[in-house]
Amino acid sequence: LKICRFDENKIGVVREDQIYDATSALDALASYRYPLPLGDPFIVALPSLRDKMSALADHAPAVPVSAARLLSPVANPSKIIGAPVNYKKHLDEVTTDPNLHHQNVAHTRPIQQAGLFLKATSSLVGALQGVVLRHPDRRTDHEVELAVIIGDRTDRVSAKDALQHVAGYCIGLDITVRGPEDRSMRKSIDTYSVLGPWLVTADEIPDPGALDLSLTVNGEPRQSSNTRNLIMGVAELIEWASSFYTLLPGDVIMTGTPDGVGPIATDDVLHARIDRIGEMTVRVH
Ligand code: MN
After folding, report:
1. Percent of the chain, pLDDT > 90?
2. Residue 197 in contact with residue 168, Cβ under 8 Å?
3. Tell me, what's the pLDDT at 220?
4. Alpha carbon of 47 to ligand 1 centroid (Å)
5. pLDDT tens digits, one per residue of 56-94
6. 180-210: per-residue pLDDT in tens?
7. Contact partners, residue 282, CB within 8 Å, separation at least 6
8. Cα 124 to ligand 1 centroid, rounded to whole Å
9. Rounded mean pLDDT of 43-47?
10. What mean pLDDT value characterizes the chain?
């Protein structure tokens, strides 16, 4: 199942290049009083809503994907987790290009030493919202990544069992201002986490470690790799992350970017694709 959030917070089922409105499935969600529970309530309810959404989609009018304003498929993650330098060739380019490491040795260490980082959840947008450059005077780079959406409460799980806790997958863009500051600051700017175009449920991607991913800027190829080149794969990332903090439904793990990162500028058009998920166009404003 491919599920998107679009226009004015509608929920849709995506089939081929059409979206079928299944928003009324949200009527089954509980309404909350303060304090709100951590985690995304739609992702919590997803297993029980799937059949209902499919049935609604069978009888809903279609909207072309190209005519929809695609929002982030997850609205309220409690965490966006980043994996730094998780492809060998990207580690090589970060180590050799002073524009990428800024004499900061912490930016040139392999992931097992560098650890994971967190991006502010307020940085999250969908494909059609686009990236709004905040510091156009500083180099700002694209990073295309496989994004994992956690499906349920996941605490200290082993890699062997980790994939059972995945709700689905999206394309992620981890937009990054280069410079000496900590990653969490440079990668948390509003609109610098793009998730889309929709969530593909985990049953459609039994092996997240064998997916081609690529990104072009204004039609020019910039990044092209396969998730088999991840240093730490999806299951290992979930094991490691959940050994430090409990993962909650809707939490996002951006699994790291391959080599080929490069600067973006106002009016650029980014086009990202990942096998079995799809493709999305993201404008830079
Ligand atoms: Mn990244």
Report:
1. 89
2. no
3. 98
4. 29
5. 999 999 999 999 999 999 999 999 999 999 998 888 888
6. 999 999 999 999 999 999 999 999 999 999 9
7. 127, 130, 131, 173, 194, 196, 269, 270, 271, 272
8. 14
9. 97
10. 96
What is the C-alpha separation between 264 and 21, in angstroms, rounded?
Answer: 34
Ligand 1 centroid from CA 90, angstroms = 10
Q: 81: CA distance to ligand 1 center in Å?
A: 10
Per the DSSP assignment, residues forming a β-bridge with 196 are 171
pTM metric for this prediction: 0.96
| CA of residue 193 to ligand 1 center, whole Å | 10
Q: Are 111 and 86 in contact (CB under 8 A)?
A: yes
- Going from the Cα of 176 to the center of ligand 1, the distance in angstroms, rounded, reads 8
3 CA to middle of ligand 1, Å? 24
Cα 49 to ligand 1 centre (Å): 32
The CA angle 41-204-167, to the nearest 5 degrees, is 20
Instruction: Please give the Cα distance from 21 to 37 (Å, whole number).
Output: 27
